[in-house]
Amino acid sequence: MPQPYARARAALAVLAVDPEGVGGLWLRARPSPQRDQVTGAVAALVLLPLTRLAPNVGDETLFGGTDLAASLVAGRAVLTRGLFATPRAIVLAMAERCPVALAVRLGQWLDRGTGCLIALDEGAEPDEALPPALIDRLGLFLDLDGISAHLPLDVADPTLLADARGRLPFVTVPDEAIELLTATAASVGIGSLRAPLQALAAARAHAALRGAAAVGDEDLRLAVELTYAHRALPQSDRADEPPEAEPPPPDDRPDDGDDTNSADPDTMTLPEDMLLDAVRAALPADLLARLAAGRAARAAVGTSGSGGAKKGNRRGRPLGSRPGRPDGQSRIDPIATLRAAAPWQAVRRALQPGATGLLIRPDDFRLRRFQELSDRVLIFAVDASGSAAMARLAEAKGAVELLLAQAYARRDHVALVAFRGTAAELLLAPTRSLVQTKRRLAGLPGGGGTPLAAGLQMAIEVARLSRGRGMTPTVALLTDGRANIDLNGLANRPKATEDAARMARMLAATGTPAIVLDTAMRPQPALQTLARQMGAAYLALPRADARRLSQALSGALEAA
Amino acid sequence: MKDPFPFSAIVGQEEMKLAMILTAIDPGIGGVLVFGDRGTGKSTAVRALAALLPPIRAVEGCPVNSATLADVPVWVQGAGQKIVTRPTPVIDLPLGVTEDRVVGALDIERALTRGEKAFEPGLLARANRGYLYIDEVNLLEDHIVDLLLDVAQSGENVVEREGLSIRHPARFVLVGSGNPEEGELRPQLLDRFGLSVEVTSPRDVATRVEVIRRRDAYENRPEGFMKTWKAKDATLRRKILAARAALPGLTTPDAVLEDCAGLCIALGSDGLRGELTLLRTARALAAYQGETVVTRQHLRSAAPSALRHRLRRDPLDEAGTGARVARILAEALPA
Questions:
Q1: What pTM value is reported for the model?
Q2: What three-state secondary structure class fits B67?
Q3: CB A101 within 8 A of CB B135
Q4: pLDDT tens for residues B107-119?
Q5: Deepest in the core among A240, A517, B142, B300, taking most CB within 10 A?
């Protein structure tokens, strides 16, 4: 199996030979000398001008537009060219924070095939990953985590790369290679058809680097390693296909990967299983799981894209205008701008005798501002402990579904926190996708202790984060109230109750409206106390009366 | 810039392709919504559609593509006197677009540098008599959706802002695509799409291999590839034109109208737009197949895409409405 170094080297060489074909590189690494080395190598090897972008880049920079300030000085329209106008390699810093709108734009640009993207993902949080629109379009993936030494990135000398680029159009691809790549992608659960195309480009580029006339086994193996490994679904997600179940064909599977290298490179002797193994071996299992978790979480966060922009200047109740620079997104207030410029006309005319018309300087610009009521996010904290499962977990799920239907009608966002065993888990970050919420909820298993405090803590955290995104959180806690696991994950009933009370007060202190739904067989006085501490409405879940429940809930929530 | 991938070369996805062809035959159907997985060729198909559309005749230099000199709005400056042929506009509405760019606004540059009050037309003006394409339509911000709904309903864009009072026709066909995992679409906007199709990644390996093979040929051996498929596109375009010409001559038996109404009642679709769209779609389908009479069979084929998105939706219904349409279709209109 090639070392991570060798893989990094191969990825860079492939990128250098055919940047448009593979689309780009997803580089997961903290800021480090190693990362700088990789980006430096890209800058040196890829024949495209390199541009660094931050996630908050405006449309003006990307698509070009009118340079208003320069236009005013020149007295005619001065146009700027956007980054997308000419082929280039874009390095996107903090790509895991990339807003969906930017990801979609970058994706549409990548689809035009006039450049490549290096997405730097710092991977600071395990549940952060690139927006799915980008994951789908970046062929290569490198994880520099755990690579501490200096990378021997003497990739290739420029003449070799130039030769390879020259050879690239003439590299032929046997039909079996396309079949193999496609079949492999399908069997590791990669649905998108972009992946096999990128793998094909990578295989072709690698063959050109080797100086081969046709794509051979080793090119294919490298291609799937580089382009499939990070997208393969973790085994648990592929319910329809039992993992590792396909028994290997008895004879045609070589014992050792080396056997295939001796074969004639012009015929495909590589069994599909070999490619599969290459994919599986390329990345450690836990990384796959981490990426998958991140993908799900991010996909969900993506839908809340409007949240961050809520404070913006596009809609809502008008506020006064403020000085600022037009950036293509905000709206200029012409009247206020003229008013700001008016007193200076005489002075400016004296300084600029030949000028005609109004004399407006960039600092006269006034931009409109609006204030808007933010979206509501409903955070469900669901007790999935053993006791709750015994009692009425199914009914609690039903109650959540009722609320979901209401949330759908009001275009609220929904987040799902479950707590059981020793800890709480964020099943779903704030999203508007009901399909996902429903799926997660249905898949929620019951059992274990009741870490009520941990559940509340997680809910507080989600509320804090969504408030930061400009949304208004409301917490709905569904529990039977028998807290028996404390914040440290230890079974200790008095401490657990105390921790839960502390968290409840903390929630109250953040001013988050809340509602407590008692799912126990009989209403719990302890839970009523907890609700009081949370400053929340308390509601004993009525048995099997969906309509009454729905009414009670909406009543409590409207009041909140 | 490279030619877009040819429409005829798209493998499989027959429902999506047919829906696009039908809106090209009769723009009155009102556009297509394509919802589905990533990497299934949604955007490719929309971009390819542009090449299939027959050109329109419009006044030279008119920002709203007016058909005759009399139609040119009064505020337009610099429109020519000639009628020219131009490709049917297919305008991209990018995410994160500002209201000003959509509806048009005061031309700030001219206002500030020359002190003139002039209107700078927006995307809605350019899309008049053509197509407006929104990729990732479910991620479009709500205030832009509001604007679109308003204009799509009235067919006219009214701008009352910054001392401007301007109106111009804005009749366009909405084409949208998106991934349902990323969010829902508002029902009001859903209703604006004539047809809705769901696409999934092809399941069998042979189809997938064919997709990759054609795409590979498009990328790496474009000359031969484009030659083959452009010829097929041309055939398809002729077929679309023939169907357009045949459309007014079609007869629609009363029995079909009754079937149509019966089906919509059985499905409980809101409003009458469902019936109207279903009928138009069935007529376009009959014309496309070169027939002169609309039959129940046409209705049956047109119903899923015309009605799927119009049912009163239970937001928690996993199976989606497609299954419901199919079931009721089998009951209400037995073959």
A1: 0.68
A2: coil
A3: no
A4: 776 776 677 778 8
A5: A517
